[in-house]
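Supplementary Text 2. Reproducibility record for the structural model of the 482-residue chain.

All settings were left at their defaults, and a single model was retained for analysis rather than an ensemble. We include the record here because the model underlies the residue-level annotations in Supplementary Table 4.
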Amino acid sequence: MASQHAQWFTRSRRETRLLMRLALPICGAQLAQAGMSTVDVIMTGRLSASDLAAVSVGSGLWLPLMLFMTGTLMGLTPIVAQLLGGQETQRIRPYLHQALWIALTLGILAGGVLWFTVSPIFRVMDVPNDVADLAEAYLAAIAFGMPGIALFQALRAFSDGMNHTRPALWISLIGLGLNLPANYVLIYGGPGLVAIAGDGLPETLQTLPALGALGCGIATAISMWVMCLTMVVYTKRSRSYAPVTLWHSPTPPQWSGIRELLRVGVPIGVSIFVEVTLFTLIALFIASLGEVTVAAHQVALNYTSILFMLPLSLGMALTVRVGHSLGASPPPVARFVAWNGIVVCLLVALLNNLILWLTSSTIISLYTTNQAVHQLAMSLIGFAMLYQISDSLQVNMAGALRGYKDTRIIMVITLISYWLIGLGGGHWLGTRGLSQWLEPLGVHGYWIGLIAGLTVAAMLLGWRLHAISKAVSHGRRAVPRS
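Retained model, structure tokens:
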């Protein structure tokens, strides 16, 4: 018995090391890309309230579109991982080429949506005219970058599936590094440069116009295309991808490959879109509860979201490990890989909760000096500690299921858990309570709804992962093949 436990521990330690080696660069890339949005907000906020509002409103439209594209293109990752594990690298190139066709199409469609449909949306939302005009200019610039970021995400999904997650990290850092100076020059123009370098600058630089929100959009679009082109050059020159002969003999659009990629990827995209809109809609509902409540909600959510990047990255890495194991090893190995990843994510969630417990008061003080906001945000941290556990579990269970290419059930569970239970239940508790037994709970009701929705999602996804992994492991269900 002791020998079996020692073998299990050795196996678990090895698998955990492989998982973390994939997950940590993914986490860094996620933080770098989130940092670009943070830089946009900070820099436009220092220019004017109108520019800040325009970028905030505009981000609420293009970010969900980008995340939907990213999720859809993530369908490539388990396919590549399984083919790599099965030593069928010659079959990877056609799938990537079909993913690039999908990415180009989605990027153009997303750009068209941002170019042609935002004006009526702003009218329905009753956005003030000055903010709407700035936001339209910002989104028009972002639209040109959407094909670039879509192509980058397709290449990133391929690279992740090949067990190379570091390139996305370094290239995301390049994007962030470019975004900072480009934002400064385009947002503040000549006056901003003079404030740094003095009057000795050439006349042409001193007279550069301050473009505000429009400049922010142009800088972001440039960063998107630079990330895309850098990833193209890297995948072309790096020996890591040589067995795939990636850029040799381009494959024209083929419906069979596109259909499989969309079958796996679209449910992922919809699931991510549903999750993003859940938090967006909650923020809109909470807006009616007053500025203190809104501020406290955003502070608590922003801090916990930063900590959640590692569990999220573990889920993405788990997709790669499960897919690779299904291709390279007997089916029971993939089951071990999946559930070992769930244990690791639970430990990481508990570590995050310890960090929250020890640092929340200090960190919240960095966000705000308003005592009312501080107290309310602190009251939400206890709820955040609960939803960190259920959210970490559900995102990693979903990641493991994606490795099995079982994505449609994730979409269904997400729709029910997030919108019906999380949003619907939270809105009911927040605005109505429980009849005569419980008064309306305000923002706490919405957070209770979040916890309930994420917990139900974790339970249902856990049941599904247990059923699928057991059936595949025991030979009652075929290993999904590409």
